[in-house]
Amino acid sequence: MDDIELIRDSQNGDLDSFNELVRRYQKMAYNLAFRMLGDAQAAEDATQEAFFSAWKNIRRFRGGSFKAWVLQITANACRDQLRRVKRRPAIPLETLPYDPPSVSAESPEDYAIRKELGEHVQRGLTTLSHEQRMAVILCDIQGLSYAEVAEVMECSLGTVKSRLNRGRTQLRDYFVKMELISSE
Amino acid sequence: MWTMWQSFRRFKKDECSRARAMLSGYIDRRLNPEELTQVEEHLRTCQGCREEQESLRATVVLLHRLPEVTPSRSFAVAPVKPLPGRRALWGLRFATAGAAVLLVLAFAADWTDLFQQNPFSNPQFGPSTLDFGSAKTSEEGKSYWVVSGVKNSVDPQSETPVDVDLVVPDGSDNVYVALRSLTYDGVIYGTVEAVPDETLQLVVTESASEADARGEADEYTVVQGSAVQPSPFATNSAEPLSDIDSIIKGQVGTYLNMVPAASDNNVLYSFYLDAAEREFRAAPDHDWLRPLEYGLIGMVVVLGGITLALWFRQRRRKAAEVS
Questions:
Q1: Nearest CA in chain A to B54
Q2: Considering CB atoms only, which of B24, B62, B64 is closest to A161?
Q3: Are A81 and A6 contained in the same domain?
Q4: Strand locations in chain B, DSSP E?
Q5: In this predicted structure, what is the pLDDT of residue B290?
Q6: Residue A146: inside a domain, yes or no?
Q7: Residue at which a domain ends, from A93, A124, A149
Q8: What is the residue range of A40's domain?
């Protein structure tokens, strides 16, 4: 069954079809939330909230990219979480409890290096503003096109380019400072 | 020469800014051919921007190397089950609303004296009480009651007071009228008239107000409960009667001992009771209404409290489900 059929059935109230869509897109949504929030629990909360909201509003989906629609809802759930954290900072964004799954044929040293790199990059992301972070995550980590990023972030292409440029430059400065890349 | 150098530097700086703004697009291959040519030409001549481009590219590569994270659980949406107690909550809501409506009705009935009984038609004081029976209406439209059960006859020629023993035989031959049976809202205005007949009758005529009662008699006295005072009922005689016990308290009702001033066949007796007597005589005619009101208030408070508590619990549970 393709997405279009599943969406149509979901709009007719078929929860199983919707949950099939959840299964297909949950990893992508969770990755956006995890990279935005830097905390596994907060990311799970935001993702669940996003899919619950998507189920409630599935009838409002009027075609186009379902992936962009889901990411848009996830992005909004992340913004809500960040506002909550700002108001009541119970979740320290610096904590990184996530352990990446180890790849077979990977030595423990390689795994440790990969984990450390992941933590550094995540810390670097938290130095960006929310909107710059989201543009960088969507484009450079999730591989969305500029047009898709613009749709998810509900802004113009020019704004996407500008946020991406500033975000990458700032991140580059952080990576240079942490000696993850050379300045030349 | 210096000015030319300054201009060249400014031009170069502007060119660098323009190129750097396009570097992200250049790295992502999102530039149109014209922009691409501009950036490539600039990078060939500008070492600083080349380094900038390389470091940005390294940053993007590093970001691409970031591993994808896998959620530890599924985010499938569970079917929303009807919350337990929902039906009970609706039942409670209806019960609370019903009790509230009944309470309002009870208050309205109490306020308007809907269930107030006519004390004349329903005496409550047992065997020692006058049974006035049904009211009759005079030609003037006034209600009156003919009191039966009079034993003594009236001697028109006699100078002695007429002794009429009506209802409350207390060992004397005096007339006792159970005033409590005559009261509306604690005050009664009325006229008592002795009518000579084969058997003596005492006609009690209800007056609408104190003024009406006074108007029926040439003289009147407010009965206040003193032991002996001039007759409030003397009309045709200038001489007041002294042998009158105004009000006897401490029994079931309040009684007026009425002795007519003269042995006239048509003596008018007029009386009314003042406020001081009201409390003593106040008898709720709808005893069941007040307890009903209190019961309904209790029901509304208890049911409303339970309903609110259940409602808050359901809201919390709903919020927990959403989150």
A1: A184
A2: B24
A3: yes
A4: 136-137, 143-147, 175-178, 189-195, 201-206, 247-248, 255-258, 268-272
A5: 80
A6: yes
A7: A93
A8: 1-93
**Residues B266, B193 contacting (CB under 8 angstroms):** yes
Last residue of a domain, one of A71, A93, A115: A93
**A98 found inside a domain:** no
From B36's Cα to the closest Cα of chain A, the distance in A is: 15
Report yes or no on A45 lying in a domain.
yes
Same domain, A81 and A123: no
**For B232-258, how does the pLDDT look when each residue is reduced to its tens digit (9 = 90+)?**
333 333 333 333 333 322 222 333 434
Question: In this model, does residue A181 exceed pLDDT 70?
Answer: yes
pTM for this prediction: 0.53
Q: What angle do CA B98, B100, B106 make, to 5 degrees?
A: 105
Q: Which residues on B lie below 8 Å from A161 (Cβ)?
A: 24-25, 30
Task: Grade residue A86 by pLDDT with cuts at 50, 70 and 90.
Answer: confident
Q: Do A20 and A44 belong to one domain?
A: yes
Q: Domain count of chain A?
A: 2
CA A64 to chain B, closest CA, distance in angstroms equals 22
B69 in contact with A, Cβ within 8 Å:
yes
Nearest Cα residue in chain A from B56 = A172
β-sheet bridge partners, residue B147 = B202
Domain-located, residue A37: yes
From chain A, the residues in CB contact with B79 under 8 A are 15
- Separation CA B191–CA B209 (nearest Å): 11
Pairing relationship of beta strands B268-272 and B255-258 according to DSSP bridges: unpaired
In the stretch 63-122 of chain A, residues with CB closer than 8 A to chain B read 98, 100-101, 114, 117-118, 121
